[in-house]
Amino acid sequence: MRVTALVILNSAASSSSSPEAADPVVLANATDVSRFGYFQRFAAREFILFVARTVANRTPAGQRQSVQHEEYKVHSYNRHDLCALAFMDDHYPVRSAFALLNQILDEYQKAFGESWRGVKVDATQPWPYLTEALTKFQDPAEVDKLFKIQRDLDETKIILHKTIENLLDRGVKLDDLVEKSSDLSAASQMFYKQAKKTNQCCTML
Amino acid sequence: MCKVRFGVVELEMSSRAGKSTYRDRTQEFVKAVESLKKTAPPAPEVPSLSDALSLDSYNSAASNQSEFNKRASRIGLEIHQASQKLAKLAKLAKRTSVFDDPSVEIQQLTTVIKQDITALNSAVVDLQLLCNSQNENGNMSRDSSSHSTNVVDNLKNRLMKATKEFKDILTMRTENFKVHENRRQMFSSSASEDSSNPFLRQRPLASRGHNDSSAPPAPWESGSSNSSTLFLRRTSTDPSSSTKPLIQQQQQQMAAVQDSYMNTRSEALHGVESTIHELSNIFTQLATMVSQQGELALRIDENMDDTLANVEGAQSQLLKNLSRISSNRWLMIKIFFVLLVFLMIFLFFVA
């Protein structure tokens, strides 16, 4: 489960009716292309940006969308013309992806306010939050609280199952002990009676 | 002159009686009409419903009419078949046994019926267009045009009735399914999460459209929610033929928009809630088992106390034994001495 790229775009100018709609403008970009060979990294980055622009162009305002592209799933969320995209593989849960996009958008709006609306040229400086988000959120549990809760609950359930098994074993052993102790008390009673009998028998001598 | 009826009329009367005895006699009628034209007899007796044909402009009118009648009769037959399938579906949906759920057949039948109804929709629309074009051509009498409009309206009404029945059957089916799921939940311990899904899914469909490509749900659920929302919208507008082509577009839209982000979130929440319930169950079971085993421990304790008492008693007995045995020797010595004394006295008396 990995996240390959996170991109934020300004898709204000994209409207389906105008044929010469301006492409969405990249506002922030974080890509993890370490999987590719050294010479392919630049091409991969360009490819990611291009697909990001296309998908952001096609996502209507206020909507979420998921597109399957080769082996990547691209999730995009367009909120008031600020579009966030995430490229991830198929195993990443979709809901966590959208939660991640929500969080990124919130952070961006907190950090930059509304200044991004006027930006017409692709931003070239990386945004540190995005890059660390990319590394931090490789595991969906970090970003999606529900996922983390579900995972913790499942672990707790496993532990409880093991506990109940141990308890059953304890029950079996206790049963065993009960048997043995009752045998022991019967034997001691026989011993007592025998001793009393030999005691009484000996008085004549 | 034999009485000749329209194939349509015969079909309508037979389908109303519930039998599917359809005989298409339009060919015979056309032949009879042509023969009539040749011999120019007095007006043939026709039933009141078929007073459409006038003696002039037979050819074009006849061919138009026969085309119209053929299609109308075919549509009527298909409507009848669709209503038969609806009756079968109603019977299947009414079966409320928990274990023998024919959901696969129901879903298949539902899709088949939906396809039939959409095909019938388009056929009726075409028929109405043909009727309008014929009316505008102007070479039909007033009665024939009124007859054709009557036929088209009749077919439309029957189709609407059939679709309303379909919607009722589907709502009944979803209610029954909900009841099934409740019963199943009572008897089994695993929580099922898709009991409320068909109704949950309708809300985001109604509020906003989302595009998401996660795994699709069970198709019959989507089918039922599709058609129930579709028919809710249909009955709110007036039942004209213009809404019928829209149904197909709405259907495709909603099939694409099925699983939205909100759905997955609500499902995740339900999952978390059910996990917590299971955990609470496990904890209570744990508590009962521990208390039962506490009882066992008490029994063991009692047994050990008994054993201890018995062994102590036996030990005291043995000690007494020992003391008596050891003290017995002393007694024996004393008895021997007494015996010796008696012996001495006996010896003294005798000697």
TrEMBL record, chain B:
The keyword Chloroplast does not apply. Keywords: Coiled coil, Membrane, Protein transport, Transmembrane, Transmembrane helix, Transport. Residues 259-321 form the T-SNARE coiled-coil homology domain. PROSITE patterns: T_SNARE. It is a single-pass type IV membrane protein. The chain crosses the membrane at residues 330-350. Its main location: membrane. It holds the Pfam family SNARE. Residues 185-199, 237-247 have a biased composition (Polar residues). Residues 181-247 are annotated as: Disordered. It comes from the Eukaryota. It is found in: Membrane. One of its GO terms (biological process) is intracellular protein transport. This is t-SNARE coiled-coil homology domain-containing protein. It comes from Zingiber officinale (Ginger).
